[in-house]
Design brief:
The protein is an alpha+beta fold. Strand 3 and strand 4 form a beta hairpin.
């Protein structure tokens, strides 16, 4: 009778030992697999962030609003003729445009956070990118008297400043900011993101 109990006890110990070994092996496998998944997820996030940065930087100077205007420029100065009290006059028509948007080449890795299907982006301030009035965009309608080239160049430079001022008065920066936000959201949706959070830095 004692021998039979001993055999049963021995068999029970072996079964328990085998179960313990299997449990330990399962624990080790699960733990290692979990670590691998975490590493894989980190790798995917890094790759995705880098892809976003590359795609955004490709946009460079991202123009999102333009302002067009035709201006009549009228200038008068004392006549250069002797004993002539009248004034020399110059009337010009200037056509130009102002472009506003973002310089996305300034976006860095710190400005983009990717979490699964969510992306947060902090973009540079909106700004005037350029004011364009080509020499051919100036047309002289009336010219009385003599006007030096240096004076005409000065008038053209003043026209560019006036065009920029008019664009700002017509809220080109606000329009560029709103349109820029909308277009960036469309681009990021195209990259596969479902939730998009865009913050725009304030200019200094």
């Amino acid at each position: 009778m004692k021998k039979i109990n001993y055999n049963i006890l021995s068999l029970t110990c072996r079964i328990v030992l085998i179960i313990c070994i299997i449990a330990i092996m399962i624990f080790i496998i699960v733990k290692c697999t979990g670590k691998k998944k975490i590493k894989d997820n980190i790798g995917l996030k890094i790759d995705k962030t880098e892809n976003v940065i590359v795609e955004i930087k490709k946009l460079g100077e991202f123009v999102t609003a333009s302002y067009y205007e035709e201006m009549v420029l009228h200038y008068a100065k004392k006549s250069t003729k002797v004993l002539d009290k009248s004034k020399d006059e110059l009337v010009m028509l200037a056509k130009g445009k102002v472009r506003a948007g973002f310089d996305l080449k300034e976006v860095s890795e710190e400005d983009i956070i990717v979490r699964n299907d969510t992306v947060e982006m902090n973009v540079p301030p909106v700004k005037i990118i350029d004011v364009i009035i080509n020499p051919s965009d100036f047309e002289i309608y009336e010219e009385d008297g003599k006007w030096s080239q240096s004076l005409i160049t000065s008038i053209q430079s003043e026209a560019r400043k006036k065009l920029k001022t008019h664009a700002l008065t017509n809220n080109i920066l606000d329009k560029a900011k709103q349109m820029g936000r909308n277009r960036l959201e469309e681009i990021l949706k195209g990259l596969g993101f479902e939730e998009i959070i865009i913050s725009i830095k304030e200019s200094n």
